[in-house]
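tool_call: predict_structure(chain=1)
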Amino acid sequence: MKKLTTFLLSGVLLFGAAACTNNAKTAADAPNSTQASPTPPTTEAAKDAQQDAQSKTRRDQLNADIRAREQRNNATGGDTQRAEGDLESEVRSKLEANIPNGQLVVKAEDNGTVTVSGTVPTKAQLDKIPTLTKQIKGVKGVNVKATVAPPKPEGSNKKSQ
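tool_result:
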């Protein structure tokens, strides 16, 4: 019985460690790393993401999630030292709600510094990133590596002959 318990516990821990290696992303086709050179989304993909993210229901849901996390952290005293995953998730949600057609990757460090990379369609959205990110409790610094890249027209990935 002890061997079975140990085996099951180690399996759960191994699965949990493997599941925690993904970067927080605002879109499925956002870059996988803050170091990757971003490629702009297609016009169609940006339009679909914008319609989804700009819906009132989605924005309300994201803002409610952020408020719930803040309340939970305040109740547990976790607002002084936040886990990287919590910061990444909250910043990603905040950016997703307010910059819906951006394709951003969020990476947090132990010291509270957050790096945001990827692409946004306008300079105004790029300028919003530091302000929105600093609204999340626990964020002490912001590195913006994102660039402005308007969406590519659908089918522009094909080479011309």
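agent: The chain has a mean pLDDT of 75. Proceeding to next step.
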